[in-house]
Every structure is written in structure tokens, then in C-alpha cells.
Specification:
Elements lengths: L1 H10 L5 E10 L2 E10 L13 E5 L11 H12 L2 E6 L2 H4 L5 H15 L10 E6 H10 L9 E7 L5 H10 L5 H11 L1 H4 L3 H15 L7 H7 L2 H12 L1 H17 L12 H6 L3 E7 L8 H12 L4 E6 L17 H15 L7
Parallel strand pairs: 3-4, 3-5, 5-6, 6-7, 7-8
Antiparallel strand pairs: 1-2, 2-4
Helix pairs in contact: 1-2, 4-5, 7-9, 9-11
Length: 352
Amino acid sequence: MSAGFLFQMLSGKFRSHSMREELLPTEDGEIRIDVYEPGSTENSTRAARCRGVILTINGLAPLGNRDPRFQRLNRAMAGIGYRVISPFMSDLCNYRIGVQNIRQVRSFIEAVQKDAVLCPDGHLSIFAPSFAGTISLIAATDPAVRDGIDAICALGSFASAPNVIERLFVDSDVDEYGRLILLLNYLHLSIGRNPSLEKAIQLAIEDSYFHYRSPELPAYLRRMDPEIRILFESIRSSDTVRRFHWNVIENRGRNIGQNPDDLSATNASVIQNLKAAVALIHGKEDKVVPASESRQLHRMLKKSGKEVRLTITPLLSHGDQNSVLGSLHHVPGLIAGFGFFFKKAKRVLSPA
């Protein structure tokens, strides 16, 4: 099963499935969802019996669940027989990070569990990358939803939010995309709100993401106030400047109730209250979240008696697949990692 999933991901040749868009009412309002059904076609609404329901929560990317890489993953999961439900998470698509993300994911999970058509027996599993993986683990401990979550696959996720945030803020050898998102969310705690600077950061994020279009940041920088432009460039290029601002942010954030540790999966309540089986899959050379984060989370879950499997692989970077050429001997390990998740997520359902 997981071999079929990886073959589809690598080849782009997907087995028969269909996709429809719906609006799902939640306690936070309606969410647009894409529902992928296995074994059906565009010309038929009849779906085959499916292996179970998987929610896929997108990462911090503007296209969200319509990101081509994420659509590829959803299609591959539908191709091996799962009903895949993928929401457009507005805050995540607009790079907004905070405890509200946990509430939004929990609300979405509960809404699907209560929908007798989408989730007939009230049980589902979750796949989520990076930040979304961590907040999904936290949301999955809520008493309102945890008994109906069978498995979680967290790809490139973190255990300790403060450790990862500090590293992205300060270190020079990390992926800039992740750093810019953190600057957009937290820099105001050090310097106050500055719409012009925040716009420059957002354009830098989008230029990095939409690499196939002409960059928009250079023209904007030419129009900026020179002092603000110098501030932006110093923050972007200087480890020392970012270290100064991080120290201010860390102290001030805790004083006003914005504690980064609230986004950590290593809180004792998270570890103890998690009921789902957990597959942790991490790229060996991840430049955003180091693999040591998944190793730490694996140790803590294992010590607490949870059902968990860890896979560290050179075949992935930060959620993106690397070339398998020259690394074919690592493929069985990745198959086993995904296989653990799919096995725990399997619940045969009748057609919708």
C-alpha cells in the first residue's frame, strides 16, 4: 500500500479517483474543503469502498491545500483507497502563527467527525507537515476529538517551538522562507507594528514561494523609506541583529501571554493525552526543522508508552522529496514509515 503511494508521488501517475469542493460548517465558520474519493472518476459520483478517512492539513504556504505538491500527496492517498479531506486553512495560508491555529484545527477535526457522510463511523486519521503537524498533534489531545483519531503522520514537525523559533531567527545556515515567516509573526514584539517593513517581509516570503514569477520585492524596496529599508536589510542579513531582537521578543512575549512554548508538542499534557498512533517522518538534512526535533518527540512518546514510529530519511528535505537516484537503499525505510501510518489509518468504509 505505501509502495503504491510512493510510486504515485514519484511518478505523477495516479490511480482512479475524483475530487470535489464543499463547504464544511465548523464552530469557527465555514471552511472550504477538497474531498478526494478513491476509485471514482470525474464522470461518476459513485465512489469505491475506501480504506478510511485521512485529513491533510496544509503547511504555511499561500496556496494551501491547492499547492501542487500537496494536491499530489492528496491524489496519491486517494489512489491507494483513502477518502482524503483537505481544508483551506486561511490563517496558515496567510502565514499567521499562534494558538488560534490549534483551535482551528481542532474545530475542523470535530466537524468532520460529526459529518455522517464524510466520516461515517466518526474515526479519522491526520497527515500534516511541519508547523501544521505539531499543531495537529496538540489539537488531537482535546477530549472532544481524541477518541476518534486513529493515527497521525507528522512530516518534518517539531517538538519544542522555542528551540526551532530561536534557531530560525538566529542561525545563518537555515532556510530563509521559514525565518521570514517567523519575522512576520514575531518581530512586532520587538519594534512595534511597522506596515511598510511587514509588507517587505511578506513580499520576500512570496518571492521565495512563487519562484516561477518575477520578484516583487526589489521594486518595493526602491520605494521604501531609506531608514526602514536599512532596518529590513540589517534584520535579513545580520545574525547579531536578529539575536538582539529575538532576546527582546522572547522576554516580551512571555510577559504578554504569547509564550512560544504553547506551540510545543512536548508539553506533558500533550504527551499524556495523545491517543493516536504517531508516525514521525523527517528529512535527514532538513534546513528548517532539524531531525533532532522528531527524535526528541519520538523519545518522549516512546517513554510515555505511546505507539510511535520514527523514520529519518535523506529522501526528503523539509517535506519535499529529493531525488531517489543513488539512494534507492533508503526507499524501504520510507515505505515502512508511511506503511505504519496507513496501517493504523485503515478502517474500511461503505461508499459515500
